[in-house]
Amino acid sequence: MPYRTNPPVSIGPSPSFRFANDTLPRQAGESPISAWHGLADPSAWGWVIATEGGTRVIVRDRFELVVVCLPTPTAAGEPHFAVLARRAGELHVRCFVFERGANPDGMAMAELRYQSATGIQRLPRPLESAPTLERCIERTVVVMRDPRTEARPVTRRSSGDSSHDGPLGVLGTVLDVVLGFFSR
Q: At 1, is the secondary structure helix, strand, or coil?
């Protein structure tokens, strides 16, 4: 098992675990602009924010990242880094956590998506490597670049029903539009 979804019971959730796995993804989901600017602000949070070129926003390959460097984890499942990432200039923010893996010299990755009705969805991303800031940045950009990892936008039917989460997914939305066009 390369990572845990919860910290070991013996130590309980540390402040850095709660921040990376609950506070940050929740704030990024509820108010992405405030979360982004809050972390990019030099006086924010009290955690160490990685800098590059004198700024807290790291830019790589059309993506902007704010990386929070957390205290060295003492157990598997505790975070090394928490990352907010977005396409340059866009409002949609994605949240990632890089945790100490089962191997003390390794690091595991997960994307955390806030969903108001169900809480925080954890999406493991394959990674088991040395816990370095550069590796964290590289892997975040790789995942952001992959269109298969994008969150589906929530769409609403004209009747007010919620998004198409069933087996048809986006196809259901397309069918609604096409059938709506021909029913006029």
A: coil
Question: How many Å apart are CA 184 and CA 169, to the nearest integer?
Answer: 24
List beta partners, residue 99. 79, 108
53: Cβ–Cβ under 8 A, 6 or more apart, which residues?
none
Please say whether the beta carbons of 120 and 113 come within 8 A: yes
What percent of the chain is modeled with pLDDT above 70?
A: 70
Give dist(CA 6, CA 26) in Å, integer.
17
The residue whose two tokens read 């998004």 is: 163
What's the pLDDT at 63?
94
Instruction: Assess contact for 93 and 84: CB atoms under 8 A.
Output: yes
Largest Cα span, the chain: 63
pLDDT digits (tens, 9 = 90+) for 57-102: 999 989 999 999 888 888 888 999 999 999 998 988 999 999 988 7
Query: For residue 142, what is the enclosing H or E element?
Result: helix 133-145
Q: Extract the runs of DSSP E, i.e. beta strands, from the chain.
A: 48-49, 58-60, 63-69, 79-87, 94-100, 107-115, 119-129
Condensed to tens digits (0 to 9), the pLDDT of residues 123-157 reads 888 766 778 889 889 999 999 998 877 765 443 33
